[in-house]
Amino acid sequence: MDNILKGKKLLVLGGAQLSCEIIKKAQELGVYVVVTDYNEIEDSPGKRIADQSFMVSTTDVDAVVKLIEEENIDGVIVGFVDMLLPYYAEICRRTGLPSYGTKEQFDIFINKDKYKALCRKFHVPTVDEYAVDLENFEESTSEIKYPVLVKPADSSGARGITICYSKEELREAYQKASQFSSSGKILVERYLLGKEATVFWLFDDGKYYLTALGNRHMKNSQEGVIPLPVGYTFPSNILSKYQKDIEENVKQMLSFVGIKNGMMFMQCKIENDECIVYDIGYRLTGSLEYKILQKVCGYDPLEMMIRFALTGKMCEQDVANKINPHFNRYGFNLSFLAKPGKIKKILGMKELLEIPQVIDAVIAHDAGEEITEEMKGLLAQITLRVLGTADNLESLKNLIELIEKHVNILSDQDENLLLPGLEFEDILKDIEIL
Asked: What are phi and psi of 14, to 5 degrees?
C-alpha cells in the first residue's frame, strides 16, 4: 500500500466495466474511490464496487465541479473513452486538480484529421487519404483506387467504419460514417491490407518512453464487418527497425504539442516493414498492456496514472531504468470475441487464473449483458481478455491452446457465443510477414 496515496479521494468519471480496473487498482493503493455517471447502479459496474457513487453525468461539467468541491475530491481520472477527455480537462482546469493533458492536446489526438496532419509534419508515417465531396461525388471520387476505409474523423471503438470496394459502397459508407461524427468530418483512406502492430508510450514530466511494441493479431470471423483484434504478442519483431527509423520523429512530434505526462497508444498497419499510424489514443488502453509491463518490467502505467491524478506526479522515482520494450520473455493478450446474444455464463475463469503464466483474466461483458447486433464489428464484441507471459514460442503455443480449451461463453439459450480466436499459426504467419 502506498502511504502517499492512502486515504486520498479519487473521482472516476464513468463506471463502465473496464473502469473497474482503475477502481480496483486505486483501492489496492488505499485510495477512497468515488464513481459518477448518469447510470443507475445496476447499469454501472464501477458503482457497484466503488466506495461511493453519484448520479452526475460525466459531461455535466458544472455538476461535476460542484461534486468535487462538496466531496473534497483529491483527484480525477478518466478511463478508456476518447469522448470524455475534453470534459476531464475542463473539470480539472476549473477545480485546479491535475490533468495529464490539456484540452487542446486532447482535441488533436481525438481527431484523426488533426493528428494525421501532425504526423505528416514530423515524418511519422500515416495512412494516405482521399478528399471526397458528396456534392461533387463523381468528380471527387474518380481517381480513387479501391479498397478504401471510410471512418469518422472524431470517433473511436471502430464505430462508423466501413471497408469499400466500389463507388456505390463508398457513397453509402460515407453517409453511415456521418452518423458517428459530431464534427461531420469523414476520412476516406487507402485501405492497407498488411498486418498490424501497436506502439505504446509513457510520458513522465516531459520525458518520452517507448514502453512496448506488439503485434496486433486481427481475424475476420464475421461476414460484412471489419476484422477485429483477437490478440497481441510482445515484443514485435518490427521493434528495432521502428526505434531506428521512427522513434525520434515521434518524440519531436510529442514535444511540439507540449506533451508532459500520461500514456498513449498508436495503432499501425505494417507495409514494407514500416509502421503506418492509423489510430492514436492519448489515454488508458483497453488492451490492458500495463498488466504485462508490470509483470515483465516491474512498473505499472495504470498505477502511475492514478498517482498523477492524486499528486500531479507520475512516479516518485525515475522509471527509465525499468523500461525495456524488448522484454526478456514473450507477453501476450488473448481477446475473446462473442457473437450477438445474451450472456448467461463465462466458463473457465477459475481454471484460467490457476495457470501460473496467466497474469489476469478480465471480463468486459459479464453474465446478463447482451452483445447486440449493433455491436457487431466493433471492439465492444471483446468479452474477455486473458493476459500472460511465456518463456519461448513453444511455451506460448501450449499456453494458447490450454487457455482456449478452458474458455466458453454461453448464451441464455445455452448456445456457444464464442467466435474463432487467436491460433498459434496466426502468430507465426504474422511474424513471418513482418
From this structure: 100, 135
